[in-house]
Design brief:
heterodimer; A: mainly alpha; 4 helices; about 55% helix; rod-shaped; B: mainly alpha; two-stranded antiparallel ribbon; about 65% helix
Chain lengths: ~140, ~190
Amino acid sequence: MTERRNNQGKTISSLFRENERKLHEAPSDRAWRQLEAKLDQRRNRHRVQLRRQYALAASLALLIGLIGLISWLAESAGQPAVAAARAPQIQLEDIPLQTVQTEPIAQQVAALSRQYQTAPHIEEGQSAQRIVPRPSRRPASQPVR
Amino acid sequence: MTEQELISRCQQEDRQAQRALYDRFAPVMFSVCRRYIQVYEDAEDVLAEAFYKVFTNIGQYKGEGSLEGWVRRIVVNEALMFLRKNHALRHAVEIDPRMEMADEITVVDELAAREILELLDQLPTGYRTVFNLYVLEGFKHREIADALNISINTSKSQLILAKKRLQELLAKAGYGDVALLSDNPETR
């Protein structure tokens, strides 16, 4: 803008520019009170947020501590309590019994069975008789070894 | 307390420092608000809101330019926001800015604060806002157009009309002869 000026006066622009400092005037206390209330509100909001953050952090730390403690207790008692608590429900089912006969036993049974079959028949005696060893066929003079 | 200490303590939300900074700049900034906003209480509300933004954003002040200039920009922006909310700044008359401008040499040298405010208050909001931004804040028309969401020509028109109106008001108020001289249209 071309400012024009002569000795008689000044431009409207410069008139306002140069006199503008006269407008400087402190506002009433109301303005500061209003500002201070807003700043207090903000500070309180920050404090509440900070407290919430601390509470959240403390809760998390407590939770982690509790989980650690439970795990440690479960391990030391030999009972994986947490794992057991998480295990699926089960039911018992009968398992059919299976007898496994090993070959040597079968062979032994078969051998015994054959032995009994070939053994001399023992006659049942009378009530007035008793079993005594049969006299040997070896000569009496020959000593028994 | 140096300005740097004041800023540093304000960043730590030290209330005493905030009060000190407020006391240092409030008179100047309140005069800015008063030039834009007619109602005293509204100007105070805008000032409080602007200083609230100053204190909550003071971390962004990097020391480039004066602190007063930085605070002043926030105050002007806040005043413009208030005007945008409460006044139809866009509904402005547009004239041909190439027209010859009858302006503006006056024999008046001094104006009292009350007279300045009375003169400005008699201008329509659009005229007053553009006059303030161009003459007293040093904005360019392009910047005013961006700030108020109006065209550059509208900004130029509003300034011409504001000056004409002020000239008439000065004459009417009995400030002696007002020499009507032609001036170049605004070119900044």
